[in-house]
C-alpha cells in the first residue's frame, strides 16, 4: 500500500511521517497542491490525501481516475471547490474531515472573550504608549457574573458552553435544532440577544444565515455587549457591527472569520493584507480582536486532520467504505 499527500504543509509533515512510521505504510509528501498538471506524480500510489481549499476540477478527476485513486480531503468546511459530479464520473470517491477538534475553536472563542472582557487591547495600547498609569483604569467584568448567549449548539457551541459554564456563567442557547440529552437552557433568538452580556456565534454560514446579526439584531442587544464570531464571516453585517462599535453599544468584538475574507483569501498570499477599509478601521480599535481564521489552529486539530483524513482513506482502501465519504 502506498499513499501520496498533496499540498502538505510544514505543520502537517511530522504527523504524516509519524503515521507512516507507525503503520508501516509508505507515504510520499508533496508540498504542491493537487492539480491537473501534477496528478501524474500519483501514478503507482493507491490513494491521495490532500488539503481542501483549492479547486478540484472534473478534468483533474478524469486524469486521476486512470490511477483508480480514492481521495481524502481535509479539513472540513464547504465542498464547493470540489467537482463532485466530475469525481463520480471518474470513479473517484471522496471523503472529508467534518470535525477535527471542536474544543480548539471553542477555546479560541473563549480566549477572545477573556481578552475583551478584561480590556486587554486598551491596556496594551496604553502600555505601548508608555502610559502605565493609564493602563490601570480599565475595569473588567467577571465572566462568571455574565450571561453568555451561544448561538448554534452543535459540536463547537456545546464545547464553548461547557467552558463558559466552568466559569460559573449563566449560559443561554439558541438553535432551531436543539441538542438532545443536554441541559442547555434554550431560549428564542430575541431573548438571547436581549439578555446576553456576551454573544458567541457557532452556526454554519448557510446563505439563510447571512447577516443574522444585522442592525436590528444589534438594536435588541444589551449596552456594552461583547460579540465573538469564530464561525463564518457572513453571519454578521460588518458595517452594522462597526456602527455599534463606534457608538459604544458594542463594548468589544472578536472576529476570527471576517465577512469579506473569502474574496480576498486567495489573493492574500500575493499582497499580504486585506484591501479593506472596514478591516483597517477595526484593526485600529483596541476593543476589537481580529484573527485570520485560525480558531481551529492547534497541534491537536492539525494532528486530527491528518489522522482522520488518513483513516478515511484507509477505510476506502481496506474496507471499501470511509466513515466520512462525501456523496453530493
Ligand atoms: P455543527 O454542524 O456541529 O453545529 C452547527 C449548529 O448550528 C447546528 O446545531 C445547527 O442546527 C445550528 N444552526 C444552524 N443555523 C442556525 C441558526 N440560524 N441559528 C442558530 N443555530 C443554527 O457545526 P460545528 O462543527 O459546531 O461548526 C460551527 C461553525 O464553526 C461552522 O460555521 C464552521 O464553519 C465553523 N468553524 C470555524 C473554524 C475556524 O477555524 N474559525 C473551524 C471549524 C469550524
Summarize the entry for a quick read.
The protein contains 12 helices and 13 strands. The chain is α/β, with parallel strands linked by helices. The chain has a 7-stranded parallel sheet, sandwiched between helices. Strands 2-1-3-4-5-13 form a 6-stranded mixed sheet, covered by helices on one side.
Structural commentary:
Helix 4 (102-117) packs across helix 6 (155-166). The chain folds into 2 domains: 2-96 and 299-326, 3-Layer(aba) Sandwich (Rossmann fold), CATH 3.40.50.720; 102-290, Rossmann fold (3-Layer(aba) Sandwich), CATH 3.40.50. It has helices at 13-23, 58-65, 84-89, 102-117, 120-128, 155-166, 189-195, 215-220, 238-247, 261-271, 277-283, 299-319; strands at 2-6, 26-29, 47-51, 70-74, 94-95, 147-151, 170-174, 185-186, 198-201, 225-229, 250-255, 288-290, 325-326. The protein has 328 residues and is of the alpha/beta class. Helix 9 (238-247) links the parallel strand 10 and strand 11. The longest helix is centred in the C-terminal third of the chain and has 21 residues, at 299-319. The site of nicotinamide-adenine-dinucleotide (NAD) has 30 residues, from helix 4 and helix 6. Nicotinamide-adenine-dinucleotide binds at residues 76-77, 99, 102, 105, 151-157, 174-177, 202-205, 209, 212, 230-232, 256-257, 293, 295-296.
Catalogue the unreliable spans. Answer: none
Oligomer: single chain
**What fraction of the residues are assigned to beta strands by DSSP?**
15-25%
Radius of gyration: 22 Å
CATH superfamily of the largest domain: NAD(P)-binding Rossmann-like Domain
Amino acid at each position: 500500500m502506498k499513499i501520496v499527500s498533496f499540498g502538505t504543509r510544514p505543520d502537517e509533515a511530522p504527523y504524516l511521517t509519524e503515521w507512516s512510521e507507525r503503520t508501516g505504510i509508505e507515504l510520499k509528501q508533496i508540498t504542491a497542491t493537487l492539480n491537473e498538471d501534477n496528478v501524474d506524480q500519483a501514478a503507482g500510489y493507491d490513494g491521495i490525501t490532500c488539503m481542501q481549499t483549492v479547486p478540484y476540477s472534473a478534468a483533474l478527476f478524469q486524469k486521476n481516475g486512470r490511477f483508480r485513486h480514492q481521495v481524502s480531503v481535509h479539513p472540513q468546511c464547504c465542498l464547493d471547490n470540489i467537482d463532485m459530479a466530475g469525481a463520480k464520473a471518474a470513479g473517484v470517491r471522496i471523503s472529508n474531515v467534518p470535525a477535527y477538534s471542536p474544543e480548539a475553536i471553542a477555546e479560541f472563542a473563549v480566549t477572545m472573550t477573556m481578552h475583551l472582557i478584561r480590556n486587554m487591547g486598551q491596556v496594551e495600547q496604553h502600555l505601548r504608549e508608555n502610559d502605565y498609569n493609564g493602563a490601570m483604569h480599565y475595569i473588567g467584568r467577571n465572566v462568571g457574573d455574565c450571561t453568555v448567549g451561544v448561538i448554534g449548539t452543535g459540536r463547537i457551541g456545546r464545547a464553548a458552553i461547557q467552558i463558559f459554564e466552568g466559569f460559573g456563567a449563566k449560559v443561554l442557547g439558541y438553535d432551531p435544532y436543539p441538542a438532545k440529552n443536554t441541559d442547555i437552557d434554550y431560549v428564542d433568538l430575541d431573548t438571547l440577544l436581549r439578555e446576553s452580556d456576551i454573544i458567541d456565534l457557532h452556526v454554519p454560514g448557510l446563505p439563510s444565515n447571512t447577516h443574522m446579526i444585522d442592525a436590528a439584531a444589534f438594536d435588541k442587544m444589551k449596552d456594552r455587549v461583547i460579540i465573538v464570531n469564530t464561525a463564518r464571516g457572513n453571519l454578521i453585517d460588518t458595517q452594522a457591527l462597526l456602527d455599534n462599535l463606534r457608538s459604544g453599544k458594542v463594548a468589544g468584538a472578536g472576529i476570527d472569520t471576517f465577512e469579506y475574507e473569502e474574496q480576498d483569501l486567495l489573493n492574500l498570499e500575493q499582497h499580504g493584507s486585506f484591501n479593506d477599509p472596514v478591516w483597517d478601521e477595526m484593526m485600529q480599535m483596541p476593543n476589537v480582536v481580529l484573527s485570520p481564521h485560525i480558531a481551529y489552529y492547534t497541534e491537536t486539530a492539525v494532528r486530527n486532520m491528518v489522522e482522520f483524513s488518513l483513516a478515511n482513506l484507509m477505510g476506502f482502501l481496506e474496507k471499501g467504505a470511509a466513515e466520512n465519504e462525501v456523496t453530493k
